Amino acid sequence: MSTDTLTERPARSTLFDGLSRYIPIGATVALLVVMYLVGTGNYRNFGEPQVVANLFVNNAALLIIAVGMTFVILSGGIDLSVGSVMAFSAMSCAWLTVEAGIPAETAVAMVLVLGTVSGAATGAVIHYFNVQPFIATLAGLFLYRGLTLQISDRDVAIRDNAFFDWGMERTEFGNVRDGGFSLPNIVFIAGAVVLIAFVVLHYTRFGRGVYAVGGSEQSALLMGLPVARTKVGVYAVSGFCAALGGVVAAFSTKSADPLGGLGLELDAIAAVVVGGALLTGGAGFVLGTVAGVMVMGMLSTIISFDGRFSSWWARIIVGILLLAFILLQRVLARSGEKRKT
Amino acid sequence: MSDEPIVQMTGITKDFTGVRALDGVDFTLRPGEIHAVMGENGAGKSTLIKVLTGVHTPDAGQIRLDGRPVRFNSPKAAQAGGISTVYQEVNLTENLSVAENLFAGREPRLGPFINFRAMRRRARALLEDIGIDLNVAAPLGSYSIAMQQLVAIARAVDIKAKVLILDEPTSSLDRDEVAVLLRVMRRLAENGTAMVFISHFLDQVYEISDRMTVLRNGTLVGEWESAALPESDLIGHMLGREAATLEQIERQAGEHKPDRGEPIVSAKGLGRKGSIAPYDLEVHAGEVVGLAGLLGSGRTETVRLIAGADRHDSGTLAFEGKSVGSHNPRTAALRGIAFCPENRKTEGLVGDLTVAENMILAMQASKGWARTVPPAQRSRLVAEFIEKLDIRPANPDLPVKNLSGGNQQKVLLARWMLIEPKLLILDEPTRGIDVGAKADIQRLVTELSGDGMAVLFVSAELDEVTRLSDRIAVLRDRELIATLETEADMTSEKIVDTIVAKGGDQ
Ligand SMILES: Nc1ncnc2c1ncn2[C@@H]1O[C@H](COP(=O)(O)OP(=O)(O)OP(=O)(O)O)[C@@H](O)[C@H]1O
Ligand SMILES: [Mg+2]
């Protein structure tokens, strides 16, 4: 056989391939490091571990939701309903425990199931009726916000509930006063979500199917992959994550705000893109999303440490970053094309 | 070989909005046979396959598999039922690795988790068995279309189905790769796999198939033993006209002779490291220059430099006597160079736009968006090229994705021909195009060059190169080794001799 074996080197060297896939995420991590150094160089106390720990504490809900968004974007879709679903879940939890007197554990479980099922339903509408994801989830955005306001148009506080108190119970790592830090349970929840998402995306058939569908839905269908199940699945994952994000938000504020999570879907999308995923689907990493969320958190932290700029500057800079990352992806995609003759 | 049929389709009818793609077609596949489905572009071959494998549902008719009536509702179901298919369209995902593409949906697992190590090992073994050697961990997209096609075939073969369907698997393959494929097919046939083979290369069809079913305009013409059907009769059945008329067209195409004037394009020492060694090449107005050579000899790379698709790193390029500075697809288009690339499957066509819109895209772009092409002129040009290239259905308002594969290619060719460039560069213009339309395209190329257009084209089919070209540039190992004038006695053998002889020198 060896005499008539056809050989071909990849048009791009494998080393380059290995690297090129990681360039966007590498850029994000580098950016994080630079921002950290700027912070520690300019502001007193910025270098304390608790500052970094707080990035995770303050952004736990966003992180969870952005992980769900990563699944959807990798599959080539988009989910605009997550902010509303989050508010709806937080509100439902609060209402069920405070007003209806249902045990908190049960209320949370119900909300998570509801989020997953409604996500799956959205996915089914998108797949079977061939509706644009943008439109289908935009409907969800209005629907769940409306339902939330229907339950209550003002904050509902959750007081003296053991289960909800558990969420912010802290575990200390070293002594906080000299070099240690502490993390509340919601951070561990977010960590677990990231870990599970990572394993699912990289080591299961469902996860690889998400990448395949994002690469080319038509091809995935012709290859005999379960496209319907995959597409319904990613929206179910996103729905679950949005609901869990709502629960975590309720944990951290001990209340539900009917206008909570306004515009959060856009933050989640921005985090995923800054984390290196392609909006067209098929390329990206869940760990990139973590880095993306961190970048956005670090920005607000720097601005609040500085105190001279209004917090809107964080938005402006996120906008610039988004543009920069999308341009970077275009450049990479084009150089990939060129190399391949 | 003639026991119970494994697949039996009877009275299959399939309507798309406005077109009847299949009309009461019968098809029978027997165990262990290789069965060719033949027909012109748009005859309904791919549709027949898609109805069988659950991509489309038939409007009427029955399908039996092993004697039992079946109706698959997705390719996944067909696969589970024992039918494995390589469709005419791209059907792999470029962003996943070679190994993942080979095993997508059936990855080896440890518990719920994919065992990547075992998957890569099996992928290597599978490819080695077929006779190709790739880095299975690299993304599929980093390989050439030909290799991707072979990977798709390897995947389909490995599914170990009772029935293997190959819809134009060879349309982007070169000689060596076709040999690899035919060898694999023979081995499978010996093991009792029944195969359906679709191709516009008649020599391949005759070499490998036991039986042929011919379709024309969505209806069944008949079924024959390949050995009992002479090629001229086959062409007659496919086109519904006598093969003799076809021969005549081809002869006419060879007779044209230009008077050589000022070169339109002239390359001196043009080259790009790692892709093509520096070469000299001139193309004059009204001249057709063909590039011949084996796979990987640098044919495509040569034309890409002239088209500005790749940047050259040595030598100079002059256009109409003026040396060009910055050279990229945009400036090339402004100078009047049109380039129709090889990889038409993924480059170029916008599926949701209509035939007419796709055709005028390049013309519109070359004029700039501010100046639109007058509608009357536009529809006249579109109608003219639909007729000249025999695009079917001849309806300019159909979305292009609804056309058959071959007709989509014709649309893309039309796009570049109708801007009336000074230099037209065609990379493999007749791949996947039926015998009749091939002659139409060849005639059109001759006609355009007769009107003064310079044409530079690449083709793996040496017959085509000899028939069309006034001069032939021969490539070997990424180097231009000779330029031959086409005299009356030019033959494919002469080109092969040149390639072999120069190889012996080194
Ligand atoms: N999805 C679709 N929607 C509408 N019409 C279609 C669709 N697919 C195919 N057709 C039409 O059905 C007819 C048969 O097409 P088909 O793809 O089966 O041809 P083919 O024999 O495979 O040709 P080729 O050799 O060019 O691949 C054509 O007229 C085509 O325009
Ligand atoms: Mg076809």
Automatic annotation (TrEMBL), chain A:
Record membrane topology: Multi-pass membrane protein
UniProt keyword list: Cell membrane, Membrane, Transmembrane, Transmembrane helix
Annotated localization: Cell membrane
Chief localization: membrane
Claim: Cell membrane is one of the keywords in the record: yes
InterPro entries: ABC_transp_permease (IPR001851)
Keyword match Membrane: yes
Gene Ontology cellular-component annotations: plasma membrane
Pfam family, one: BPD_transp_2
Protein name per the record: Sugar ABC transporter permease YjfF
Organism classification: Bacteria, Bacillati, Actinomycetota, Actinomycetes, Glycomycetales
TrEMBL record, chain B:
GO MF, any single term: ATP binding
Domain named ABC transporter: residues: 7-242, 259-502
Membrane topology: Peripheral membrane protein
SMART domains per record: AAA (SM00382)
UniProt feature coiled coil, ranges: none
Domain of life: Bacteria
Protein keywords: ATP-binding, Cell membrane, Membrane, Nucleotide-binding, Repeat, Translocase, Transport
Pfam families assigned to the protein according to its UniProt record, in alphabetical order: ABC_tran (PF00005)
Localization in the cell: Cell membrane
Record-linked PANTHER family: CARBOHYDRATE TRANSPORT ATP-BINDING PROTEIN MG119-RELATED, GALACTOFURANOSE TRANSPORTER ATP-BINDING PROTEIN YTFR
Name recorded for this polypeptide: Sugar ABC transporter ATP-binding protein
